Structure formats: structure tokens, C-alpha cells
Amino acid sequence: MTPTYYGFLQTRFLLFTVIGLPITFGFANLYRDYMTPFAILGYLLIFGFAWDAAYKFLVTLRWDHDWPPAYQLFAGIWEGFFFWILLQTFRQSGQQLPGISELLTFSQFLLHYSTVWIFIFIGTQGPLRILFPRWRFRGGKWL
After folding, report:
1. What is the C-alpha separation between 82 and 100, in angstroms, rounded?
2. Is 12 helix (H, G, I), strand (E, B) or coil?
């Protein structure tokens, strides 16, 4: 399967909506902060659309034009690291990303991000492929 850029975007949006939103709602209840977890999810979705362009380019450099699970792991680590560094850069300049509480700790971010990421990863490796077998043959597109 050669994923298309549009397929990357659709898959990311679907997974963030179906898997990410319910988990984020749970963290919003846990932290008693209904803005920060959803803002983080929104920022990661928006940044993810840009990262997907880079991932699409990297996929074309591989002989089989596929994105193996190990690359998905590295991408997940990179995306979380990038966002946390961006957040810290804003904090050090005396600003704050809109919607993100200044009380957000690294452990809260890491727990929320890694939980959402793990469930999305599991979703792409199992249930997504079982429930939607044609998804891979359409380049990751849903519509």
C-alpha cells in the first residue's frame, strides 16, 4: 500500500476523533481542566497535518513506499517531543499557547499524550485493519 497525503490526513483525523476525543475527555475529567487536554489534542492534530506532508515525502524514499510500525513509533516520539519543546519555548518567553494552562506539568502531558498515542497505535495495527480491510488498498483514504 502506498499511503497518499490525503489518506494520511483522513486517517489522522479519524483516529483523533474516534479514539483521541474519548480518552482526552477522560483526562479532562481527571485533571479537572476541560480546556488544556482538548487544546493539546487540537494542536497535535493541526501540527500532525503538517508532519504528514513530511511523512509522505519520507515514504516515497523507501523502496516499498510503506510506513512500518517502527516508523510510527519514532514519529510518535518526535511529535510529543516537538510539542513539549514548543510549549516550553513559549513558557520561557513569558507567553502561553492559547488554551494551554500554565499549570500543565510534564507528567500530565506525558500521561495524556502517551495514552492517546498508544491507543491510536493499537487501533492502526489491529482493529482498523480488521474492521476496514479496504482502507490500506485506498492509500489510507476513507472517503
Report:
1. 16
2. helix
